Amino acid sequence: ASILRRLSPALERGKAKVKNAVVLARCDAITALGATGKETYGALLSGLSALTEVTRFPVGQYRARTAASIEGLSPNGHPLVYDLLDPLLKSVPPPPPDTLLTTCTTKAGIDSLERYKRGTVPDGLGTLPGDLCKRVSRTLGIPRPSVNVSAACASATVAIAQGASLIAAGMEKSVLVICADVITEFVFSGFSALQVLSPDRARPFDRSRAGLSLGEGAAFIHLVSGALAEKHFIRPVAEIAGWGVANDAFHVTAPARDGRGLCNAMHSALKRASLEKQEIAGISAHGTGTIRNDAMEIKAFHRFFSGRVPPAYSVKGAIGHTFGAAGGIEAVIATEVLRRRLLPPTVGLEEPEAAARDFVTREPTPISGDHLMVTNSGFGGISAVLILKRSSDP
């Protein structure tokens, strides 16, 4: 609670010009396409997709049968999310002892309740999103109280924005964001009931798109102040130049069709970064493949960029929609995009929506600028945006 009380004034102060640089010191991700962010990015450039038929549980009664699942995950009596997190946490360098830890997940260990419903007594630890904080804190040896952010599919993006605000305001020097979500039957059945799963595979921004495909993955993002990075000779991966969070308050599960929430978040991010719109070299779009989300993003991009929309891509046709972990994973991929100055193709896209034809990527696309925008949206009308700046010494 004390951490949450501190976030509000920090976010308010973040609306002013940023005084303290926010450095992305280290990051990595695990997806169904790769055990690291670099592996995932390489597979995306090759146009590969991890979407295959689900075998973890029966799917015959559901709207879809495919998802981007990570092979080898086994609950062994504990929540599946920890089987995903354990290898990621081993790759996290020891953070400074005063680091603020923020975890992000939408459903955490919900599969424990599935096993309970089937008559198995599961390990109760880890069922709730807040349990993730305790497990990660203990594993990484972080003594401070931590907080979990659960802001639907924008969770990780919101957490990174909050961490950046605290560092920019001088209230923190080191913030570690850990995000993870897994595919369980509870989640699969829920999205199926909402009728937003694609019967085939997700095709972001395609004129014949029919829904999203689920995926799973995890990522860590370590943010530090520019002064701390300089003091400890940390070679930055990138800089978090701007961020914005907004809510259109339109509907429980659907975004406002005019894209006003996303536009507000993009405006806040651009203002904090002190940039002009033409300085955005590319966009990592949310791009779920659902009819309404993609239409909203297309409209928002045209509205915000006044028709000259930078080239944009979505990764969800390749790695699926990873719920609360999406923003973190996509930020890790964005650092690789900036390093190579090469946008990946939008896997699954066959025939673009007419209004997206001029800006959505269908093949690897070079960029010349130093700033990439990452957008994510979620249930409840929330939208979150990050602007990453390429490191001068990548």
Helicity level, as a percent range? 25-40%
Give the count of helical stretches: 12
Radius of gyration: 19 Å
Q: If strands are numbered along the chain, what order do they take across the biggest sheet?
A: 5-4-6-7-1-8-14-13-9-10
- What best-fitting shape do the alpha-carbon axes yield? globular
Reading the helices and strands in chain order gives HEHEEHEHHEHEHEHEHEHEHHEEEE
Oligomer: single chain
**Which regions are unreliable across 5 or more consecutive residues at pLDDT < 50?**
10-18
Q: How many strands, what sense, and barrel or not for the largest sheet?
A: 10 strands, mixed
- Give the total of beta strands: 14
The end-to-end span amounts to 37 Å
